[in-house]
Design goal:
Nucleotidyltransferase, domain 5, single chain, 138 residues, globular, 5 strands
Amino acid sequence: MGLDMGSKTIGVALSDELGIVANGMGTISRQGTDRDLKTLADLVSKYEVRQIVVGLPIRMAGTVGIEAKKVLQFVEKMKRSLSVPITTWDERLTTVQAQRVLLEAGLSRKKRKKVIDKTAATLILQSYLDAEQTRASS
């Protein structure tokens, strides 16, 4: 499962069983840490998730800023409450890439806003899956 952590929503993507293709699932409206963790635990159980990949918003210079620190704090809480491995993944330019994909698809600004987090989560997960495939074939 791939996650794009935002302050208001969490974008969610799932891969196929073989871990080859990422598919956008939707978004979770943030409702506080405890409720967010419960919602994620429910998704892990429902979809038999074996691993979670969380996008880490590292700055372009490669440094960890305020947003990345918030994500890392939440990841630590996830690790304590969920029973699956959790990995962070550099998500630099993912939102920009998601915007480009949605613009090319001809979506209006209003429609893009509704699916941007899900699209970013899909791109994060797909990037991770591609890297794992490359690593496995090396």
